[in-house]
Write a structure and sequence with these properties.
Number of domains: 1
Helix content: over 70%
Number of helices: 8
Number of strands: 0
Structural class: mainly alpha
Shape: globular
Radius of gyration: 15 Å
Order of helices and strands: HHHHHHHH
Oligomer: single chain
Strand content: under 5%
Largest sheet: none
């Protein structure tokens, strides 16, 4: 049986708090979508920064995410607990690299990321099935983020043409 953190555990263990997306991963329906909302909110409140700083932020969060997700998976006793949503947060932030400013673009990025994360087209499905541990939890969402990023940039290009 999967272990699920309660409020006290989330508030006393910052690793679980982050891995479970500040509690959004405990949503009874669509925890991944709820976790992605955290990514959307984080993106909207991030200060403007040069692209290189944003990329470094995504890289650091990815590395930290491997550690957080590994910890939370071991804690819960499940290799990829559905409540672990830090990977969705990072995947969404990857999607928004190079995105134009504006709520509409942020919401379109949200939709595109969720489509790739849920449908898991090749090679995302292969990574999801074959990679383990914290790296395995993170990598499929990071690649889904890159697929959504490419799709979003294509749409941006179409709008500008």
């Amino acid at each position: 049986m999967a272990r699920v953190p309660d409020v006290t555990e989330l508030l006393t263990d910052f690793r679980l708090l982050l891995a479970f997306g500040f509690g959004t991963g405990l949503a009874p329906k669509a925890p991944g979508t709820a976790g992605t909302v955290v990514g959307l909110m984080l993106y909207l409140v991030l200060p403007e920064m040069p692209v290189w700083q944003y990329v470094v932020l995504c890289l650091v969060m990815s590395v930290v995410g491997v550690w957080l997700c590994e910890y939370a998976a071991n804690w819960s006793g499940v290799k990829d607990h559905p409540g672990i949503v830090f990977d969705e947060i990072v995947g969404y932030l990857v999607t928004m690299t190079f995105a134009p400013a504006g709520l509409g673009w942020a919401l379109l990025g949200f939709l595109l990321f969720r489509v790739f994360d849920i449908l898991k087209p090749f090679p995302i499905d292969v990574l999801d099935k074959n990679c383990r541990g914290g790296f395995g939890i993170m990598i499929d969402d990071i690649v889904a983020g890159f697929a959504a990023l490419a799709s979003l940039q294509f749409i941006v290009w179409l709008v500008q043409v």
